[in-house]
Amino acid sequence: MWAAESVFYQIYPLGFCGAPFENDGILVSRIRKAADWIPHLKKLGISAVYFAPVFESDTHGYNTRDFGKIDVRLGTNEDFAYVCREFHQSGIRIILDGVFNHVGRGFWAFRDVQEKREKSRYADWFHLRFDGESRFQDGFWYEGWEGNDDLVRLNLQNEEVIQHILDNVREWVRLYEIDGLRLDVAYCLDRNFIKRLRSYCDNLKQDFFLLGEMLHGDYNQLMNDEMLHSVTNYECYKGLYSSFNSGNMFEIMHSLLRQFGPENWTLYKGKHLFCFVDNHDVTRVASILQQEQHIPLIYAMMFAMPGIPCIYYGSEWGAKAKKEEGDPALRPCFEKPEWNQLTGFLAGLVAIHTQNQALLYGSFRSVYLTNLQCIFERQTEEETILFALNASSEEAAVSFGEELEAEDLISGQQKKLQQNEKMAPYSVNYWKVRKF
């Protein structure tokens, strides 16, 4: 599938476009700004964009009011259709956030229940009881997502609800020609609903990509032939920054070997998990790493390890923000994209990742490991690539056991890897070797 060979770029549209947090009902065509960033994304080498929520909502996008209407703070359906056409004409695919577990209190069917109570034909669309009370004094109790009463859980075992969602997905494909969906809180979704969605989308559009948000547990529960193509790799997200901050590369290597290693019990061998170093829900990577010199190194490792890499808007030039500063800090509006040394380095990593089959489909094996250095191998029948990293401020000598002829994919130079290869402080290398 195309996603396995893509590098994604995540945009949180409401923040990206500088929309007010509360839905003020004022129509402003802000979303067209996204099309202005296409030259930046092409220069970076991006081949797919994941748009966080774009549909009409109460506030942050994850409390939907209407699946069929682009949020007025972003513009009209025609505005977003224009953006999608521009991206597709530039060779960039699009996936949208599918927020199907819950809706906002402003969702039209929930408003009907508030007005008509037991007489509403939509009462069964939600998990509610009329012999209770909500904290909003609705005169009935309903289940909110994880205790958040502003996020009203949908009844995904109700056939009308399922059909309503599927009908809207069909319209998104018709109007915007989207190439896939990222399912918000996929770990909470009814499993039969996910199977229905997968079957429906398989017949709706060829190679329609389904990505699920998972935080923990066995990813295979949702990532399989009947359900999702991929899930978010939060295990390795945590392992990446923690390994650098604690000076312990054994942590991330343990996760990678557990997920993709050569043993028969490896969990996700041959699968493509969605990889990232930050997103709209977590502290920016430039703020969470304790040493600034590690920023290019953590990206280099993400692009070298198995999976589908994703860059969060603004982080490609080192934007900072901490989770404790609140969602608006994590989801800002930048007037225009920036390009600096880090951005250029990432563009090089994108090119290396997409142009080498071993990095897209190769097996994974650990070759050398200490607290601050690691080397691992990505290999197909046709090629072998070694990724080497030195996170130390000191030069390090790493052992290969034999001399190897190699091409340095970063510099483009041919060289012979010695038995005790010297690695500069805070350095990374991608070596394509002739024999191993």
How would you summarize this macromolecular structure in one to three sentences?
By secondary structure, the protein is an alpha/beta fold.
Question: What this model shows, in words?
Answer:
The mean pLDDT is 96. With 436 residues, this protein is an alpha/beta fold. Strand 17 and strand 18 form a beta hairpin. The strands form 6 sheets. It has an 8-stranded parallel β-sheet. It folds into 3 domains: 259 residues, Alpha-Beta Barrel (TIM Barrel), CATH 3.20.20.80; 52 residues, Oligo-1,6-glucosidase, Domain 2 (Oligo-1,6-glucosidase, domain 2, Alpha-Beta Complex), CATH 3.90.400; 71 residues, Sandwich (Immunoglobulin-like), CATH 2.60.40. It contains 14 helices and 23 strands.
